[in-house]
Design brief:
Layout (H helix, E strand, L loop, with lengths): L9 E3 L2 E3 L6 E5 L7 H13 L4 E5 L3 H10 L7 E4 L4 H10 L3 E4 L7 H14 L2 E7 H8 L1 H4 L5 H18 L5 E6 L3 H12 L7 E2 L7 H17 L5 E3 L7 H13 L9 E4 L10 H11 L8 E5 L5 H4 L5 E5 L3 E6 L2 E7 L3 H14 L5
Parallel strand pairs: 3-4, 3-10, 4-5, 5-6, 6-7, 7-8, 9-10, 11-12, 12-13
Antiparallel strand pairs: 1-2, 13-14, 14-15
Helix pairs in contact: 1-2, 2-3, 3-4, 7-8, 8-9, 9-10, 11-13
């Protein structure tokens, strides 16, 4: 197990964040928050995938007021995402948000920030100080745009200035995030702030991009930080339906042993000149056949028998293809030969048989 950075515990609703608790998975709806039915439906979909904290945009008063109707219909804490307007933050708190996120880059007046913090304190809810590089660039202008080396210190400076302001009014239910759209800036910013405080950190790469490149950037940045023990909750920001964010977040955490997998793991080879079957199609068939199988299950789908059983010896069960024929094996040992067009079906049947005996997953 990776040693975690020691932090205090902060709650978002019933979910505790901090080093003594599992790294929590978050996402954000992309429905208009004022559309209560659509927002609740999307949150239910994300809950079913394991999302543990949900954030909603609050760009106008109708969205803030909708929070009161949304919360009774969902089972996970709701965070109100606030920019520019302290009045919207106050309205979201009044509506029952479990936490709020504010951005120091666009909520600056001391009296406005104090009003929000004191309202959160009175309600006993957490506040995430969410700094991102875009807001810093906009605020600092060409000086930062021309000199990226100044960006991380400015992000940390602005974060800690907000922290001190919160602490001056006795508020410490704080979570921090310092996001950039590139990997190295994100990593450097989180490392720097982690050395200066013991508040839980919400990890993420902002505007990471579409699922391909966005998944890679998030996996690299979050993987580096999590492997160093930094990070207490994560959101994988991807362009597109938010369900993919939750799936990728769990895959990242599971790859580091920080959370259990939410679905069976498929180990498949990249193929080479020895491969005599359509391995990509076979892998898709296997993935479909594994719907509902235990998440702890590890299945190998290999392109040939030269290295198949040996390379996949750590898998619970697997198949290796050949010319017109394939082979079913379990934990590296050959079970039987199978016609190539029946490989996926035979694999599913074997999994079911072994499961019945209680010897799998």
């Amino acid at each position: 197990m990776i040693p975690r950075r020691a932090t205090r515990t902060v709650h978002k609703g019933p979910v505790p964040l901090g080093s003594g608790h599992p790294v929590a998975v978050q996402s954000m709806t992309n429905t208009p928050t004022a559309d209560v039915a659509a927002t609740v439906a999307q949150i239910h979909e994300l809950e079913a995938l394991g999302c543990e904290i949900i954030r909603v945009a609050v760009p106008e008063r109708a969205a803030a007021e909708a929070i009161a109707a949304i919360i009774p219909q969902i089972g996970i804490p709701l965070v109100a995402d606030i920019h520019f307007s302290h009045r919207l933050a106050l309205a979201a708190i009044e509506a029952g948000a479990h936490a709020i996120r504010i951005n120091p880059g666009n909520l600056r007046r001391r009296e406005h920030v104090d009003a929000v913090v004191l309202a959160a304190k009175a309600r006993g809810i957490a506040v995430r100080i969410g700094v991102n590089s875009g807001s810093i660039r906009a605020r600092e202008g060409l000086e930062v745009a021309a000199d990226d080396s100044a960006l991380v210190p400015l992000m940390v400076e602005q974060t800690m200035a907000y922290v001190r302001q919160f602490e001056e009014v006795g508020f410490r239910d704080i979570v921090l995030s310092l996001k950039a759209s590139d990997v190295l800036t994100t990593v450097d910013a989180y490392r720097a702030v982690a050395r200066q405080c013991d508040y839980p950190l919400h990890l993420g790469v902002t505007a990471a991009g579409p699922p391909g490149v966005g998944t890679i950037k998030s996996a690299v940045a979050l993987g580096i930080l999590l492997n160093e023990g930094i990070g207490d909750t994560i959101r994988v920001s991807l362009t597109g339906p938010p369900h993919r964010e939750v799936e990728v977040a769990y895959d990242i955490l599971a790859s580091l042993g920080l959370r259990e997998r939410r679905h069976p793991e498929i180990v498949s080879c990249p193929t080479c000149g020895r491969c005599q079957i359509d391995l990509a199609a076979l892998t898709e068939q296997v993935a479909a056949a594994l719907q509902g199988a235990p998440p702890s299950l590890r299945v190998a789908v290999m392109g040939c028998v030269v290295n198949g059983p040996g390379e996949a010896r750590d898998a619970d069960i697997g198949i290796a293809g050949g010319k017109g024929v394939g082979y079913l094996f379990r934990r590296g040992k050959l079970i039987r030969e199978v016609p190539a067009d029946r490989l996926a079906g035979e694999l599913a049947a074997e999994i079911a048989r072994v499961q019945e005996k209680g010897d799998l997953g």
